[in-house]
Specification:
137 residues
């Protein structure tokens, strides 16, 4: 069971930090705040956690803009510990976290590419916008 919680916390941490650095944050923030508040013993703890989260969002956006993967990894580690602790204290939070992960992965700005069926003997290019020529080979 511990391995499952660790995997869920890792996935949740990755999702939360990715959301922090994206335009989807505004749509998901209140749900993440509610999740964080579940693990808070007092209102003061909840307010402190929410303020930390807002500060972390600034760090995440700055890291994304500056191309600093170390900061992103550090934030993910913080969230992994935070979520793992929350899941240990409140196992029912796993349902909420799974929903957030699913919704966060499908949030605007998230891209999921899937190629299935058939055989492809040449390069497959999936892109939103291509400006100029593409030369393969």
């Amino acid at each position: 069971m511990e391995a499952e919680l660790a995997a869920l916390a890792t996935s949740g941490a990755t999702t939360v930090v990715a959301l922090m650095a994206s335009d989807a944050w505004n749509a998901m923030r209140s749900r993440i705040v509610d999740l964080v508040r579940r693990g808070s013993a007092t209102q003061e703890d909840a307010d402190r956690a929410e303020a930390e989260m807002d500060s972390e969002r600034l760090e995440a956006t700055a890291a994304q803009d500056g191309g600093d993967p170390t900061v992103v990894a550090d934030l993910e580690a913080v969230w992994r510990v935070r979520l793992r602790r929350l899941l240990r204290e409140d196992p029912s939070a796993s349902v909420v976290l799974r929903e957030l992960i699913a919704e966060g992965s499908a949030a605007p700005g998230a891209v999921h590419n899937t190629i299935s069926g058939g055989q492809f003997r040449q390069a497959v290019i999936q892109a939103g916008n291509i400006h100029g020529d593409i030369h393969l080979g």
